[in-house]
Every structure is written in C-alpha cells, then in structure tokens.
Design brief:
- There is one protein chain.
- This protein is mainly α.
- It has a domain of 217 residues.
- The protein is 78% helix and 0% strand.
- The chain has 12 helices and no strands.
- It is globular and about 55 Å long.
- It starts with a helix and ends in an 11-residue tail after the last helix.
- Keywords: Membrane, Transmembrane, Transmembrane helix.
- This is Lysylphosphatidylglycerol synthetase.
C-alpha cells in the first residue's frame, strides 16, 4: 500500500496549522510594534510609573480574564448541548482554538468555520447556527446596554446632534433596505430561500431555556470585561464614578462594534472611540490608550496564545461523539 499520498496530506495539514498560528502571532507582533497611536516603550514606562505591574493588579486582572473566558466557554458548552453533549475541556479547545484561527478574518467570521470543523460533516450546519446564536446573544447585550449607556452619555454631556439630519438619514437608510429587500426577493434562488427557512426553523425550535442561559452568560461576560476596564481606570488614578464610567464604557463597545474590522485591528478601533468618549470625562489620551492596550493584551492576546496550542493539536474528528 502506498502511504505517500497520506503522508503528503498530513504534511500539508501540519503546514496549514503552523501557518495559522504564525500568521496570528505575526499580526499581534505587528500591531504591538507598529501602533501609530501608541508606542510600546511609552506604554511600558507609563504603566510602570503608575505601578500597574504590581503582583496584586496583574493577578486581579488575570482572574477577571479567566472568568470572562470561563463564561464564554460555558456558554458555548450550553448552546451546543441540544445538538451534541461536550465536556468543558472540549468546549475550551473549540472556543480558544477557533478564536485564534479567526484573528485575521473580518469580524471574526472565520470562527464559524473553525468551530464547525471540530465536528463531523453531519453536525457542521447545526454548529454554524449555534455559533451564530452565540454571537447574536453577545451582540444583543452590547446593543441593549450600549444604547442605554449612549442615551445617558449624550444627555449628560449635552452632545450636539442634528436630530433632523439623523432622522432623515435613518428614513433614507430604511427605504434603501426596503428596496433592496424587494429586489433580492425577486432574484433570490430557491436554495437560498430554503436555507433561510432552515435558519429560522433552527432558531425557533431551539430550547428557550438554553437561549436564556446563553443570554445570562453573555451578560456576565459583558459585566466582567466592563468592570475590568473600570478597574484599570482606578489603577491609573482617574477619579471617575462607576456609573459615569459604565455608561461611557458601554457606549464605547457599542460604537466600536458597529465598525466592520479584522479582529486583530480591534485595538485601533476601540482606542480611537475610547479616546473621543473619555475626553468628555477629561481623561487624557495616554491613559485611555494604555487601558485599551492592556484590555487587548489580557482578553485578546493571552487567549490567542492559549488557543494556538489547540490549533497545533487539532485533528479532524472521526466520530460524532465529542464528550
């Protein structure tokens, strides 16, 4: 029996896994050393000056990061349970591995395919939809709390908004969407119509109790990394109340989530939005950029390094049982 084709296939499979990890690390390195709005040397000096690198601060931030990802992994384990039961170890492998694999894809769209390939072909469509639900629940929390926060932020700081132009733009946008809907509806293929129906059927028949748990886990995640941001504000000596900071933080996450971007560039988007919003609280740019960078390192870079381990150890499943 000729084993050469199999060995060649294995070689290319290993090469692909290594490429994913190396590209992810390169993007992280590039962003750290080529950030035009923030210099890494200045960041280290500024952080040291404010005693950020104390053991107590690092440990507390690591604990918050741990619970942030603990609830993300638990959410995934819960949401996938109506399709197939998996243990926490496999949920961790899938969550962190897919996160690393999706770093250089727009809006982390690569995560959908990355999570699906942990399963056999018969389950992959359902896994894609479960991941859609997971991200949708997290986005709904961002939208709900962000809208509330932005409303009170605008009210508090009397930001001048031309509401007539805003309403005009909103109506124009809705009209464009309606026209596009009818045009697409006329030309949509039968296959796409069936696919859309399958998505609706999947979501409508998905256990409501599981969706509720997913919503709660998404909320807990949001509260944890929002508090982590506030904690960093206090570490860097800013005098701002929690409620005042919270409405600014929620506004920042909402506005940053609207902008389509590659995940690795998330630091640049959040940084620019945060600098603008926190300027109303009279918090200087260096402090804000330092906090955004630290949040990025703890909640983005650290999990991606852990996820690279699972990417390198990945093998295609041979059976549908993942427990």
């Amino acid at each position: 029996m000729n084993t050469r084709p199999y060995k060649t296939k294995q070689f290319f499979f290993v090469l692909i896994k290594l490429s994913i990890v190396l590209i992810a690390f390169y993007f992280i390195y590039y962003k750290l050393v080529n950030n035009s709005s923030f210099n890494i040397n200045n960041f280290i000096q500024f952080s040291s000056k404010n005693h950020f690198f104390s053991l107590k601060n690092i440990l507390f931030l690591l604990i918050l990061t741990f619970f942030n990802w603990f609830f993300e992994i638990t959410k995934w384990q819960k949401l996938v349970s109506p399709i197939i039961k998996i243990n926490f170890k496999n949920a961790t492998k899938q969550s962190l591995g897919s996160f690393t694999a999706s770093l250089f894809t727009p809006n982390r769209i690569g995560e959908y395919g990355a999570k699906a390939i942990f399963y056999t072909k018969g389950l992959r469509k359902q896994i894609l939809l479960a991941n859609l639900l997971s991200n949708g629940l997290q986005m709904s929390i961002t939208a709900i709390l962000g809208t509330i926060g932005l409303y009170f932020f605008i009210k508090e700081y009397s930001i001048d908004i031309n509401y007539s132009n805003f309403i005009y733009g909103l109506i124009s946008g809705l009209l464009i969407l309606v026209i596009m809907f009818f045009l697409i509806r006329k030309n949509v293929s039968k296959t796409k119509a069936i696919l859309f129906k399958k998505i609706i059927d999947f979501l409508s028949h998905f256990p409501k109790k599981i969706i509720f748990y997913g919503f709660i886990f998404s909320l807990l995640r949001y509260l944890i990394f929002s508090f982590q941001f506030y904690l960093l504000l206090t570490i860097f000596g800013t005098e701002v109340g929690y409620l005042n900071a919270f409405k600014t933080i929620t506004s920042m996450y909402l506005l940053a989530s609207i902008v389509p971007t590659i995940s690795i560039l998330d630091i640049a988007i959040k940084g620019s939005v945060a600098v603008y919003l926190f300027s109303f609280l009279e918090i200087n740019e260096v402090t804000v950029l330092a906090i955004v960078t630290i949040m990025w390192l703890f909640n983005f870079v650290l999990p991606s390094f852990l996820g690279s381990y699972y990417v390198l150890r990945f093998n295609f499943p041979k059976t549908p049982v993942q427990v």
